[in-house]
Design goal:
The complex is a heterotetramer. Chain A has 18 helices and 26 strands. Chain A is α+β, with helices and mostly antiparallel strands. In chain A, a hairpin with a 5-residue loop joins strand 5 and strand 6. The N terminus of chain A is likely disordered. Chain B folds into 3 domains: 175 residues, Rossmann fold; 198 residues, 3-Layer(aba) Sandwich (Rossmann fold); 80 residues, no CATH class. In chain B, the strands form 4 sheets. In chain B, strands 7-8-9-3-10-11 form a 6-stranded mixed β-sheet, with helices on both faces. In chain B, helix 20 links the parallel strand 18 and strand 19. In chain B, helix 7 runs parallel beside helix 8, helix 16 runs parallel beside helix 19 and helix 17 packs across helix 19. The longest helix of chain B has 18 residues. The N terminus and C terminus of chain B are likely disordered. Chain C has 2 domains: 78 residues, no CATH class; 217 residues, MetI-like (MetI-like fold, Orthogonal Bundle). The chains are: A alpha+beta, B alpha/beta, C mainly alpha, D mainly alpha.
Amino acid sequence: MKNRQPAYQPTSRSKAVKAGAVASAAALSLLLAACGGQTTSAEAGTGEKVDGGTIRYAHLQEPACVYGGWIQQAFLSRQVLDSLVSQTEDGSIVAWLAEKWKVSEDQLTWTFTLKPGLEFTDGTPLDAQAVSDNFEFWQGGGNGTVQAHIGDYYSSSRAIDATTLEVKLSEPFAPFLSALSQGYFGIQSPTALESRSEAENCESPIGSGPFTVGEWKRGQSITFNRNDAYNSAPQNAKHQGPAYVDSVVWSFIQDNTSRFGSLASGESDAIGEVPTVDFDTAKAQFDVQQFLTPGRPVTLSLNTVEGPFTDVKVRQAFAYSADRKAVVDSAFLGVVPFEGNGTVSSSTPGYNPDVAADYPFDVEKANVLLDEAGWTERSAEGTRTKDGKELEIKIVFGLNSIVTAEGATALQNLQEQVKATGFKVTLVPATQAELFSGQFSTPDSYDAQLGYWTSPHAGILYINFRQNTEKKPNPANTTFYNNAKIEDVILKANSAKTTAEANKLYGEAQQLLSDEAVAVGLYTQTSSVASNPKVKDIWLEASQGEPVFHDAYFTE
Amino acid sequence: MTVLVEKPVSAPAASANRTLLAVHALNVSFAVGTGRHQKINHVVKNVSLELSAGRCLAIVGESGSGKSVTARTLVGLPGRNAIIEATRLEVANRNALTLSERLWRQVRGKDIGFILQDALVSLDPLRPVGKEIEEALRLHGWGNAASRRRKAIELLDSVGVPQPEMRSRQRPDELSGGLRQRALIASAIALDPALVIADEPTTALDVTVQAQVLDLLAAMKARGTGIILISHDLSVVSRLADDVAVMRGGAIVEQGPVREVLGNPQHEYTRALLDAVPSAHTKGTPLTKEGRSGIIATSDRARRVRAANAGPVLEARGLGKSYDGPDGVRRKVVHDVSFNLAAGETLGIVGESGSGKSTTAKLAPDTGEVLLDGQPWSSLSTSQRRPRRRRVTVVYQDPLSSFDPRWNAERILVDALDHRDFSTAQTRSNRVAELAGQVGLQVEHLEKHPLQLSGGQRQRLAIARALAPEPEVIVLDEAVSALDVSVQAQVLDLLTNLQAQLGLSYLFISHDLGVIHHMSDRVLVMKDGKAVEQGTADQIFNEPAHPYTQELLASLPRLEITENTTRSINA
Amino acid sequence: MSILETRETTLETDPDQASRPRRDRHIFTGLRSLGTRLLSAVGVIWAAATFTFLIQSLLPGDRATLLLNQLNGQIQERTAAELAPINEKYGFTDPLIVQYFRFLGDLATGNLGTSYQLHKPVIEVIGDQIAPTIVLTFTSLLIAWAICIVVIVGTAKRNRFFSSVASGLEALAAGLPQYWLGVILLVVFALNLGLFPVVGGTGIGGLLLPALTLGIPLAGFLGQVIRTEFESGMDQPFALTARMRGMGDTGVRLRHVLRHSVLPGITLSGWALGSLFSAAVIAESIFTRPGLGKVLVTAVNSRDLPVVCGIVILVAVIYVVANLLVDVAYTLIDPRLKTS
Amino acid sequence: MSTTTFTPGKPEVTARTFTASLLGGVPVAAVISTVVLAFFVIAALAPRLLTGADPLAIDLGAALQAPSSDHWFGTDQSGRDLYTRVVYGTRESLLIGLGATGLAIGIAAVLGVTAGLGGRFADGLINRGLEVLFAFPVLLLAMLFVTIYGPSVTTQIVAVGLGTAPGYARMIRGQVLAVRNSGYVEAAHGLGHSRWQVLRQHVFPNAMRPLIAVVTLGVGQSIVWASGLAFLGLGVAPPSPEWGALLDAGRMFITKAWWLEVMPGLAIVALALAATSLGRHLQTKLEGSQP
């Protein structure tokens, strides 16, 4: 029916068959491809602001809990929890729950002054003690990601008076405030944490944010209701006081086509994670915002302790072997930018842009390096060999859970490209269960692993590249690369007195890591929102890219 | 349903000479296949029939004679892709050639009733019989629901169904064969049609029930209904019909009043058909012309066998057998049956369905024992019996299912040979050829698969297989029941000849009294799992002692042979 | 199904004479068969639960690590110290046999446990989501039946052309990958023609496309089975008898033949119900419908054993119940089975 | 002689195109099915005969091109020729279909024959076991299995094979019982053949006979099941052109590049349809020769 015969031997039947196939395929294609002419509900109105209303926002993933250490949970908890400080797009820190703060000369004691008279939505006063309780909660295992960020530095905290909080660090930590600005650091009611069940705190954490968690219809949506008493918006918000809209219905539409379709059909007012295929259409018809998530971009962590990548020359050769920019541009249709820096992404304060250009596409260099490394023979298929062993690279990636379909395409493109220099890449899409249960966390389970780590500051280097020693294990070091010298630079940066100084040192560390080619950058993690033009002032906050609905309103 | 055409004048039991059916030069053919490969099968050729009220016309013929197609054409349902031609086709005063499907529907059931063979499948097995009768009434707009219900019960009563109210609520499978056939008749005559067509109405029935149903049809005839009776059974025909048409290969070969046609058959085929019917008169004589020409005198071997075995070759003592029913209740189906089978003798076991005759013939009782040549047989374990098994072989009623469908005739016979006796391919193939010759199979038949053989050929193959191990006893379990009468005659002649030649002993099971009488030296009559009477064939058939045997014989429709019969052999 | 066996062993007895089984015996056999059924149902559920338990607990990867990683959105090895509280809480370090008996004990008392992920009792997790899935599966089954009865009664043994086109379409429908069909239905009817909402939700408007997605391939399967039976039913003598008494073609089809032909379809439906239940995940995710399918996929992915077990047990129960219903439907349609 | 002809009932319209017989009585549908299947078999064994291109060769400049004379099925997001990928994907898809069906029938044959021939106890035990397996819908079982063992051709084969085995097992058991109770087995015992001889000569070959048709039906279904797994992200690893994987990858492009979703889907449908219709044809042929 659909099989084309080779063109040089057309028979009458194959023609008929072909004609049938063409006809039916064409009919289908007409029905399928008519999407471009979709009428949008974005009609020109008076543009006047309307109070109230419900914003229907469609999001990609639905986590098990509202609060937790996963970025998907930060997306949700940002709506209901406030943090101490907020980070702006230029990387500076502004007031939120904390009006002002100061740090001691030795950089070890931080004193925060809270806005007075604040309350959680359950009536518990939001005072210094409550915040201190939250620090203790995190430290006690309440949030593993918080621990990853500040666990090694945090020492203690106490309420000096109702509005004054003192936090003591064990070592100076320059990105401390930046870390605090993330959704994981949202402050919850200590009463709720203590008195309510785990399930309740998972489903509807109590905070002081612009919304409260209403009904969660699992598999469908969460309704966020306006907190009418809200008066603690961050300084970078567009207004103070309660949110303009009555509620936000935050639905979960995993299917890209449906999610964008729901915006086009008017079933949603805004959607997150605008599908790359629809990005141009979205830009033409809707208000689109894209945010390049700071932290570690989506990179290949090369296993430096087992397999071919133990040799730095092979790692470098691998980086030279592919036109990674072309690979990414093609896979993401130009929507998501290529990121050559494998350790820190371009939107992160402290990003070293030079590093991104360290390994351009250069087959010759790659070949020379591989020859030098002893991979001189080639198999029948063109794969390099050394001592009879093929230069085989097993790349593990969590398809759908960590890496999108576009990312998988980029990997396939890369896989084809590096063939020329003699790499034989095997792609291993891991299921979520395999991945999270640690089956691909050991050095013997992969040669390279694709992943990212969001962080509003370059201190992410400390999490990812601190040495992994028996005494002080660092399982987040997925390259298993231990280098005391580099760790030293990172530690120095962490303890720098000024941000500028810290960033300079972070940049240095990036360069050192790049020279070792332990991580090969591919693309930036992004988040995006497309909204109906009738809805104004949805913005993406700058620590992690979560949409903020506090300022959003409808227009006529 | 609104009646769109003028109703024909129907006055039941009125003018006895009113013509109900007039058919002239009816031809029916079927288109098979399409396009270039289309073939036309001409199955009814130039048939002319006539029937008046109060009379019965029988159409007689063997399978494939076109009798059923003729009957179905008379109600406008000959089958798919039928092409019908006739110079005249008048049914119930209507020109059937011009009737539309819609008008046909008004005729069927109202002017013509049709009775099919087996009520178990001819009535909807899932519905109570009363509903089926009511449906016949409803379709022709008769009365309302309540009156139809009453009428259905009345009808059941009128066809002799006891407790009609209760029976009307039962499904065919809950009724006995006789009752459900009556219910089927009731549904066909619900609207008192002037013409009733009965297609083999008694074939599936036991003789006693058959007699009752025939009486019922006779009573209808007496009331003025015209009946067309389709049958292969000449004795049934002779009992009910006034006129008879004998069909063969789609054409009528002979036609006329029953007494004339059956009493003084003019056509060779009619004569052969009559001769082929086994009965008391045919005992000891071949049934076919071929058989007559090839009478085989008792061979030396047969004589030797008889002489060597003074005692019975097979002896059954007090056989009993029980089965677990589907409800978990154990039922005894054979009680204390004993018999002897002498060498070279045929013992007939006769009984109606469910009498336990086949179970007895399996020779595998729970209680009692079977001795072969005076040695234990049934009490042996399977493995002990295996080497002796070849001494008793079986021919089944349905030969087709007893052959592995993947094998051709030759393979089937080779498989039956004892490979110790025939160790080389050559000896085996010689023996197979010999066996085929004995049963009258041609060499080309050996290459065919059972499915490609005719019914008679299959049964010959089954007999050859049974002969292959050179057994002493062959159990023939309803071995000829499924065959047409002329084929049956050939097979019976073959069996007689083989017995004479080889000195075989037959355990011959049949429900057909005529066949039993024809074949058996001695007869065992069974009822409800018990042997009610045993004796020589002539004793049993001429002086039945047990009331049941008497009843059986009384209900047996006999071919009424008139004074000027021309049975060539009997003469 | 013991249909065939029952039919074969039905003895040709004359009810006038044969002693009809008495009523008390009926009740006894009824009770016994109910008892056997219950026992075998419990057996099925026990085996299903055990199987799931083993599959989930014996296989590679550490469950405590998984839970911790999932909680934090990280993929890494965990230290013993980090894992200890989780192991303690769920008893992962106990010998397997201890875990298994604890699991069975909980099961026996009707306690399906608490979801590792949602921290909610499994009963609640399932209870929240079961309604839309049940609505979807039953609607799909109904749609499948409706389609195939209309098509078969309309075309079987009628006109060769339509009959062969229809049976070709049945084969086509049976070969359609559900999700391919779903995506195309979504794009054509919801996105481009705008006839249905893109995001189905639980409303009536959102039900049709998912139900068609599951129902059309099922209709193909059912159709193939029912058509064969229907065609042979049309050749049965009782169909001829009905015509002989003046019944029209449509009457014969609807009043007589249809009833006979649906039996194998009903057997298939019992099986299909379980299958639809798991295939629901496909329709649910394409049409963004809430339901158990999604819960199952999430639970399987995160090895949320209590939830997976709960759903497996639920499906087993549905299977058992569906087969009971099939038996009931059988005896309603073919009363011969009740008396024998 | 004046003759009137009438055709009772509704006039019979015969559509030659659909029922015409070619090659001596083989229906057109069976011929077309055979041709389609032959195409796929060639594609599986010698894809080079059907396409000159490399299924993995990317051409980033030619991504997402609509079907044209250069690319009959268009190109995918990496500029790979979709027709070539569909052709090359046949091998894995067919392997999954055949492997899963083969595995299922292998398991089923052992279980079914044991149940059919073993005593009451074995039959009861296996029947209970099958009952349990039946309670596991194919997709559920496959999902559990693949999630844990990771997606690959092998796991797909095992998962789908395990899932579909009970259906076949029940069928084989019924078949064995039917053959065991058949006239020819009784006749063979009557001739004094040993139990083993009867099993070997009659029971096995006849009980397995209808499987030929069932296998062809099953292959198509297995591929459809496997594509369902691919949809759940449990398919074969990229960049394999396995059809389920192609469908899964094509889904996100459906509004922009319909061919990525439609063409592999049509391949699955064509294969399943051809297999089903050939299976049906075989079935009727086999049933026809059965008593």
